[in-house]
Amino acid sequence: SSGLETKESSEGPIAIAVTPRSLEENLTTWDFEITLNTHSEELSADLVAVSELVDDSGKSYRPTSWEGAPPGGHHREGVLKFNPISPKPKSLKLKIKNVGEVPERSFKWNL
Asked: What is the pLDDT of residues 32-79, one digit of tens each?
């Protein structure tokens, strides 16, 4: 565990919670545990396509994969994986776009 807190967004009809796992430069991937919940619509977003990681200098990184529940249903959880960023930034922001009629959600951690 990274010791970084879970960040939540409950805008619109879909609630999203994100928890970073360990974010050390020597790891093969940086993993973010993501949970999505709704009572009103299908969770159909391709999280690899709608997510990006942004470092403290504004550089953007695309996820490499999603390991977890496939699109559909009212509850999904899994892990969004990124390549590690080196040197390790001072802060990170995970952006998830166009999920549940919300143009962009932003989750930020100071490292």
From this structure: 999 999 988 899 999 999 999 999 999 999 999 999 999 999 999 999
Q: What is the pLDDT of residues 76-102, one digit of tens each?
A: 999 999 999 999 999 999 999 999 989
Q: Identify which of 109, 106, 56 has the alpha carbon closest to the alpha carbon of residue 85.
A: 56
Closest by CA position to 63, among listed 18, 103, 26: 18
Do 99 and 16 form a contact (C-beta atoms < 8 A)? Answer: yes
Buried b (16+ CB within 10 A) or exposed e, 1-30: eeebeebebeebebebbbbbbebeeeeebb
The closest alpha carbon to 105, from 10, 31, 41, 28, belongs to 10
